[in-house]
Write the structure tokens for this entry.
Amino acid sequence: MERLAVPARLSSARCIVRHPANPVLSSRDVPFPSVNVYNAGVARLGGRYVTVFRNDHGFDRQAFEEACAGRREWPVQINLGIARSDDGARWEVEPTPIAASEPAEFARLAGLPAGEVLRVYDPRITVVEGRPHLCLAVDTRHGLRGAVVAADDSLRQWTVLDLTVPDNRNMVLFPSRIGGAYLRLERPFPVYSRGGQDRFEMWLSRSPDLRHWGRSALVLAVEQVPFANDKLGPAAPPVLTERGWLTVFHAVDRDDTRGKNGWEPRWTKRYTAGVCLLDRDDPSRVVAMSKAPLIAPEAPYETVDGYRDNVIFPCGLAVEDGGLVKIWYGASDHVLALATCRLDELLALCDSPA
Ligand code: BMA
């Protein structure tokens, strides 16, 4: 498969303002073992912001490098933590991780055999009909599965509603039913049928009850996005605006001349955030899209000293009264960052037709 051309330099949209307190959450803020904190779902619940964040722990740089060189077992463990905030910038982290995010407990909740679940990570939160729901990536011994989970307001009591067949992840739920159906964006990994290379895109599936999913459709393909040549994925849950469902996505370009980057011995990918609008009544249709990135890696915490540098991985977006948009994103797989912009400017960016 040919690799599409992507400019060597990419910049963020002019309307994007990085929060002066960035990074807004990092391992230093976490009262339990923590090495990297990133890829965090965010929602408004009970008048405050709540985040469920990915917490990588149990290793240091030396153990990581030895594992990359094949001299020891993979040391990285993952659980999820919770933090709450009034403004989305100053977070109070709860004292313990979520027990249900530990692999053994998640396997028990999902009715899977002990030892089947390896890692639960990259949470997204959507309040659906008043109740918080999470979408999660679940690495198992038999493939990577996407989970849909109903939670209580503490976000600690989980009911597993669905686990996809492998390989699928980056799922996000829409906040309301459309045409009678619940909807989710998702990103399957068709490797065999796409020539063994990454060329993964954004899809949508529908459900009558959040448990049974189907009627799937392709939403956005790599060749539609001028700043991607590798893969795309859903990012934060879509928000309904006067022009349709506003949604951000992550877009990846790969350049095999890129070398060592962050902790990785070799890291050839760059992750940017894109933005598009989906049709109000049929969100499998992209109606408008910015042809340039919304957020590209530029700040030091996005480009140097990360775990994997040059990664912008949004998982949360909120529109506040007055039209201020807040976007939370994992930066270089090691911290959580916040960017803001005005809703009207964001919609104007989407003015080019899809
Ligand atoms: C993706 C996922 C994310 C991660 C990103 C960049 O494939 O693993 O969790 O943030 O790569 O490393």
Summary: The longest strand covers residues 117-128. Residues 17-349 form a domain with the Tachylectin-2; Chain A fold (CATH 2.115.10.20).
